[in-house]
Amino acid sequence: MGLIAVAFAVVSYYAKPMYGFIVLTAGIACVGFSFVLISWIAPTGLEHQAIFIAKHMVITVLYTTTWLTATFTRRMVLQYRQAIERVEQLEKYTLTQGVLTVNEFQYRLDDVYTGARRRGEGAYVLFLHVIKDKRSFQLVDTLVAQLERAALQSVRSKFDIVGKLADDTIGLVLQNTDARGVSIVTDRFFHLLSEQLNAKATEMLEISPYHLIDQWGEIVRLLEAYYPRGTFVDRSAL
Known about the structure:
By secondary structure, the protein is α+β, with helices and mostly antiparallel strands. The chain has helices at about 1-15, 15-40, 45-90, 100-120, 140-155, 180-195, 200, 215-225, and strands spanning about 125-130, 160-165, 170-175, 205-210.
């Protein structure tokens, strides 16, 4: 009986509440039917029937309590996970000081896009991506940490923006600049990175530059890929 209760608790936790309730009612009905069947096959007196009824009530209470506990626990776990995701979205900075989260990065990027389009200024967005393969798979966290530090040292701290978009990708927003400015930043970035990493490590990096105004649609589509499905909002279109 204890193993059945444990199995029922596991099913109730992982299944939707409605399915768990169906299993609950079916289980209670089966137990009651089995007691009736036993009494019909081997007729018993009122005393044994009273015992069967008591057992059935105990099992009903046990299964119902198990279902309620499992359903409540499942709901609390889901709410906790949602709260963690919400906190991560509201956070402005990652563990590396000066590196924005993807949500804050998008907020700042929308403001830069609106201002650059109004003033007719040039601006670029760079996506720095670690190419995952057998060599880099175990080193992604280390590489990204080095990328963040090198990126912060390569850009203008009061004008440009650095954000962590994913575990293997960071983004840079270079304001009021042109293709030559992008080249200067990338050269400085690789120079700083070469002092911290070997040549093979830098080969695992991929840099994709985009003009903020002319290629805004492509930038938005790339950013959307770093958000959970259905949660991305293009605020520049509001």
